[in-house]
Amino acid sequence: MRKSIATVSLSGSLSEKLTAAAAAGFEGVEIFENDLIASPLTPEEVRARAADLGLAVDLYQPFRDFEAVPDALLERNLRRAESKFEVMARLGADTMLVCSSVSPDAIDDDGLAAEQLNLLAGRAERHGVRIAYEALAWGRHISTYDHAWRVVEAADHPALGTCLDSFHILSRASDPRGIEDIPGEKIFFLQLADAPLMAMDVLQWSRHYRCFPGQGGLDVAGLLAHAVRAGYRGPLSLEVFNDVFRQADAGRTALDAMRSLLALEESAGLAALPEPVVPSGFAFAELTAADSEPLISLLGSLGFARTGRHRGKPVELWEQGEARVLINTAGSDRRSGPSLAAVGLESADPAASVRRAETLLAPVVPRRRGEGEAPLDAVAGPDGTELFFCRTGSPGHPSWTDDFAPAGAAGTPGAPDDGGGTGLGTIDHVALPQPWHHFDEAALFYRSVLGLKPDESQDLADPYGLFRSLAVAGSGGTPLRIALNVAPSPEGEATRSQHIALATDDIVDTARRLRDRGTPVLPIPANYYDDLGARYELPAEQLARLREFGILYDRDGDGEFFHFYTVTVGRVFFEVVQRTGGYDGYGARNATVRLAAQHAAQLGAV
Amino acid sequence: MRKSIATVSLSGSLSEKLTAAAAAGFEGVEIFENDLIASPLTPEEVRARAADLGLAVDLYQPFRDFEAVPDALLERNLRRAESKFEVMARLGADTMLVCSSVSPDAIDDDGLAAEQLNLLAGRAERHGVRIAYEALAWGRHISTYDHAWRVVEAADHPALGTCLDSFHILSRASDPRGIEDIPGEKIFFLQLADAPLMAMDVLQWSRHYRCFPGQGGLDVAGLLAHAVRAGYRGPLSLEVFNDVFRQADAGRTALDAMRSLLALEESAGLAALPEPVVPSGFAFAELTAADSEPLISLLGSLGFARTGRHRGKPVELWEQGEARVLINTAGSDRRSGPSLAAVGLESADPAASVRRAETLLAPVVPRRRGEGEAPLDAVAGPDGTELFFCRTGSPGHPSWTDDFAPAGAAGTPGAPDDGGGTGLGTIDHVALPQPWHHFDEAALFYRSVLGLKPDESQDLADPYGLFRSLAVAGSGGTPLRIALNVAPSPEGEATRSQHIALATDDIVDTARRLRDRGTPVLPIPANYYDDLGARYELPAEQLARLREFGILYDRDGDGEFFHFYTVTVGRVFFEVVQRTGGYDGYGARNATVRLAAQHAAQLGAV
């Protein structure tokens, strides 16, 4: 379906907004009145600019507090409308959004509202304009979509229809099935917005917390399906008031918005995208470092062995069981230290993974493949992390591992047989800090592009502010897991850390082996264990082992979680985890202790 | 009364929190359990650190989900409590906060709750500990303070009392008068927090938006007065969960917290501070500039004349009517350009103004008075702006103007008689951008230190995010007015602007004179006037004049407001305003247009 966006959804001047909307592939815009009023461009110039960019002006909005007023006020309101019709003619807009009145002057009289809307529609018609009447969730007398429709029906004018807005309908928990009772041709416009589920005043919720469909908790796809079944064939138009999007780069927000609509059409069964290929695990994690020594030392102590050297690039492969880490020494910034730059995701069909990602506007990473190397299909995540789609060691298919020549010799550090492993055989999850303005984008990206399921968002109390964390995961017994984090403020971005969690089946045994190998482990305060003893009835012997090795503990109804951390090198640290039973979380309740311990370690306080 | 603060109210490690609380003059702290658990300090070390700093550990908190449970769970809960009593002995804390249960295991049975709390109090007593039982506003069965008190009364144990928390009581709109029915000695603890009035889920409201008393909309002083009338003589203790304070510098937050308690005691009639001397107007605004030429050119075009030169410093006095501007060329940073560094406030008693400011912990600015100069009493505002208390030209009192030697000669630019004024005779208001983490602090500062009244907070839509704005004002016909603004994010601080608004009685006349003098005025888009015509029934002639001179318009039930702006020089611009009738605002609805026009002007787009 045709795709539009309201200019209020994007940051910047009206000019910037139009440019961003066009670049993201939108075909139309809703011009938000304040954006026009504050613009140095005349309506004619806006129209020309939009036309140059291939954008139609699908809606002018909003016109407020029109209907059900005493006669004297009606005359004024009609004059006001005439003036806006003239602006719309100059803009080339043929549909005007009229919101249900919030004015104390409005009279609770549907007949009067219908009569006056009929009058307005008559005036509009003379200007070639249609009126789309919408119920605001906080409208004074008319606040539900079915009520607005009854008034429109009673007004009975060809130039009058209704506008449906998913936020106004779903925020009030109205039943959207009634949409199918409205003749499709009388639904003049459809505005779409999602929002996180919040128990707060609906006006504040609407003005500050709306987000793009798929980023919140409202069933926008279900609502869309009802509208289409009713016969609606107009634009899908995003109208999102969001404090963060107002600050973010308009170009990126517009792409995020378009991705949201593409995924929404798929969810509503209106369009078929290439099927998602849910990654089944991590092929590798790639660290970049100008100086790889600290990483090599840490990886070696964790029991990894250097097993390969890339044939064409300064990249080493380190392995332990199924856990693979690449160390890339090309082009990294020495000052920032080692960082996690890429992850390899196991895909049953890497080419199909990329097709879906491209369709959903993920930036494809230019291929840097040397002659004879295996194909490497990658896209960039919202934080710049490269996501490679891999099919590792599958007979009959090229594998990225073929590009590595065997390395390491018996008896040398990092050789596979230098004393055995430490029980760390797979990557349990990786944690990727996200840019402050793009957390909602990241959640939608991982959900739509990779087909991962988001968990509930959590607040993690760092000593210097609350982090937000959202985990996304695949399905099955050992799903692929990624934890997305965002710092309390843009200032905090420099200090955010990435990590790679490695799984063991016996965390005490692994911890003991790591101690023997000199792995630098993050010290955990004794107070934590005193509390753990009070909180859970753990056997004394087990509690003593946890305390001895700095292991953190969590449990829920499904199972237990044990975990500890290495110190941080550059921007990266490692976690060691053991899951028992069906425990599916990440030990969020221990995050405060971990974050405080990391701050203390950074200051050299412990 | 004795003053305490919960460690959760401050940012940083437990060590930093204790240091900040002590430096601000607190006598006690509540130790928040997670702060202790995450600390590398043992309880004994915390106790010693606190003692060294002169802080008592007044409360250990919280203990959760204890009461009204089945027997098997009771045993576990008692074991958990015993373990915490041991921690408290090590900490030197003698009061434990027990919150009403939120657990699904809790039984709705007041008798059982009382019985089990009695049991807990008995155990506590053996450890020399008292239990303060508090109703959480979202408690499962017990959520009001009077209900909690009935259970405590029924439990009837000397080591059991109640804890009152102003947020939990006032957020539910409970009637606090019932507090006086509780015997004072059974109120074991009083926690104080304010919050902005928000219609949202009370748990989220409590966890993210609490603020210090006087910074929100709850009547904390009234509640405190009831508690004191009941006979409460324990500590006044702040417990504030606030997303911004978590990120802010702990030292500053602690001072803000102490200021809040001092002002609260005054509001509740419990302490007499030096009376506020509400400033009656602006003595001057002081701009600093390494290169004063752009400012001189702008001031001259606005009709100001150079009338004085400071006898001992590189400072010029520029005047027009009662509006005075100082230009200081000492020690300014050339790169940032001119900025507003100080304002002079007319005070009937400058020494008394300073006494009050000092009592309320405002940093007194070191006096830089030369020999024979008038006394200059100044404190620093939260954004670093210096606030001078002045008594200008009052017979029998020294006046800061005496330190200036007359300057300017007939016929030279900037001379008083170069062609007459422009009608700008007073400073209407100044706008001071505030640091991101200190907006609530600023509101309380201007209210408590200067006795100004805050208006309602407003959101102003800049093209790149929402600003928050709060005006504070004195009383009377032409009150002193200051507009406080805060950028959408810390990133935005570099671009925030300060301004000085000058009043005229005839804005069109002033605008015409300024045009003749070549004052660079901010251009306003034509679209604004098209909308103004539609919105208000302004006479065509008047609308044409507004359009001609780029004058913005607002009105409310009390009167009208006309205003326009100069371009920005460095960080500063000027506004010209005319108020008619009793209009008391600042044209907030025009802020979007002004902010967009300023962005456009910055880019050279207009």
TrEMBL record, chains A, B:
<dbReference type="InterPro" id="IPR050312">
    <property type="entry name" value="IolE/XylAMocC-like"/>
</dbReference>
<dbReference type="InterPro" id="IPR029068">
    <property type="entry name" value="Glyas_Bleomycin-R_OHBP_Dase"/>
</dbReference>
<keyword id="KW-0223">Dioxygenase</keyword>
<dbReference type="InterPro" id="IPR037523">
    <property type="entry name" value="VOC_core"/>
</dbReference>
<dbReference type="Pfam" id="PF01261">
    <property type="entry name" value="AP_endonuc_2"/>
</dbReference>
<dbReference type="InterPro" id="IPR036237">
    <property type="entry name" value="Xyl_isomerase-like_sf"/>
</dbReference>
<dbReference type="Pfam" id="PF00903">
    <property type="entry name" value="Glyoxalase"/>
</dbReference>
<feature type="binding site">
    <location>
        <position position="239"/>
    </location>
    <ligand>
        <name>a divalent metal cation</name>
    </ligand>
</feature>
<keyword id="KW-0479">Metal-binding</keyword>
<feature type="binding site">
    <location>
        <position position="191"/>
    </location>
    <ligand>
        <name>a divalent metal cation</name>
    </ligand>
</feature>
<comment type="similarity">
    <text>Belongs to the bacterial two-domain DSD family.</text>
</comment>
<dbReference type="GO" id="GO:0051213">
    <property type="term" value="F:dioxygenase activity"/>
</dbReference>
<protein>
    <recommendedName>
        <fullName>3-dehydroshikimate dehydratase</fullName>
        <ecNumber>4.2.1.118</ecNumber>
    </recommendedName>
</protein>
<dbReference type="Pfam" id="PF14696">
    <property type="entry name" value="Glyoxalase_5"/>
</dbReference>
<keyword id="KW-0456">Lyase</keyword>
<feature type="binding site">
    <location>
        <position position="134"/>
    </location>
    <ligand>
        <name>a divalent metal cation</name>
    </ligand>
</feature>
<keyword id="KW-0560">Oxidoreductase</keyword>
<feature type="domain" description="VOC">
    <location>
        <begin position="426"/>
        <end position="567"/>
    </location>
</feature>
<feature type="binding site">
    <location>
        <position position="429"/>
    </location>
    <ligand>
        <name>Mg(2+)</name>
    </ligand>
</feature>
<feature type="compositionally biased region" description="Low complexity">
    <location>
        <begin position="401"/>
        <end position="416"/>
    </location>
</feature>
<feature type="binding site">
    <location>
        <position position="165"/>
    </location>
    <ligand>
        <name>a divalent metal cation</name>
    </ligand>
</feature>
<dbReference type="InterPro" id="IPR043700">
    <property type="entry name" value="DSD"/>
</dbReference>
<dbReference type="InterPro" id="IPR004360">
    <property type="entry name" value="Glyas_Fos-R_dOase_dom"/>
</dbReference>
<feature type="domain" description="VOC">
    <location>
        <begin position="281"/>
        <end position="392"/>
    </location>
</feature>
<feature type="binding site">
    <location>
        <position position="499"/>
    </location>
    <ligand>
        <name>Mg(2+)</name>
    </ligand>
</feature>
<feature type="region of interest" description="Disordered">
    <location>
        <begin position="399"/>
        <end position="422"/>
    </location>
</feature>
<comment type="function">
    <text>Catalyzes the conversion of 3-dehydroshikimate to protocatechuate (3,4-dihydroxybenzoate), a common intermediate of quinate and shikimate degradation pathways.</text>
</comment>
<feature type="binding site">
    <location>
        <position position="575"/>
    </location>
    <ligand>
        <name>Mg(2+)</name>
    </ligand>
</feature>
<dbReference type="InterPro" id="IPR013022">
    <property type="entry name" value="Xyl_isomerase-like_TIM-brl"/>
</dbReference>
<comment type="pathway">
    <text>Aromatic compound metabolism; 3,4-dihydroxybenzoate biosynthesis.</text>
</comment>
